[in-house]
Amino acid sequence: MVLYQIFHRVAFVVTAFIHLYFNDLIKAAITVAGMCLSDSKRPVLQSILRLHSVVLVCFMLAFCFNVVSAHPDQTALNGRDVLNFDDIETPGGFGQIAAGYHGLTFNHFYAFKPTHPDLEGIISVDDLNCAVSKPNSLYGSKVTAESPSIQAHDPSHTFTVHSLRIKPLDLPVGYVTLNLRGFLPERSASPLLWSVDFPAGFHDTLHVRLEEFSKMQWKGLARLEVEADFHFNDLEMDDWEFCIDDLEVEVD
Known about the structure:
Blueprint: H1 2-22, H2 25-38, H3 44-68, E1 80-83, E2 94-95, E3 104-107, E4 109-112, E5 137-140, E6 149-152, E7 159-168, E8 175-183, E9 192-199, E10 206-209, H4 210-214, E11 223-232, E12 235-237, E13 242-251
Keywords: Membrane, Transmembrane, Transmembrane helix
Transmembrane segments: 6-26, 47-68
């Protein structure tokens, strides 16, 4: 996030400089400043006040440019958008995700703040890294046989998933298989499938670059389902908890 802010400000300064340079505004500002201070017939105080007025005009122009320029926290419309869910309130550690959040609807998902005081002793310290971009991440678990899913809020739209960071929650024994299923609008089309196993123990979030890992584009999806299956000897559970962060998507 800090690097993103730095890049934004550098881009702002460079863009402003290019505008000034190619419109000869730098030369004009120097000329005006020279005129303000070089008129020997005017009192020095009056010249300084004139120069001060010029500086104020430049400040207002810079302010207007900053208002209309791209802000680092803006939602990218019709383009890639990295969702980190940090702007969602999480009273008690969990928060509802409004329908239409960044053009998407999240079913059986919640915003999740693993460091919330109310979750101390409930969430393992090994899962505090769920929030890659602090403080929040996305929490999911199967509910009454329905897998957590994501879909475009407008049914006439589809979306593309480029990447995400994911891990199962605390896993002392056995292993968990995380399954991703991408459903296309055509009902007859086979869903896109990708899965990965996490053995017991501590894990960092896995940065899943879907096209690279699955060898296919997850483009034009009507729905994305995510499911975590727990396995230990003969015991199997298909409702294990997991977390996601830095979800890179694009509403088509």
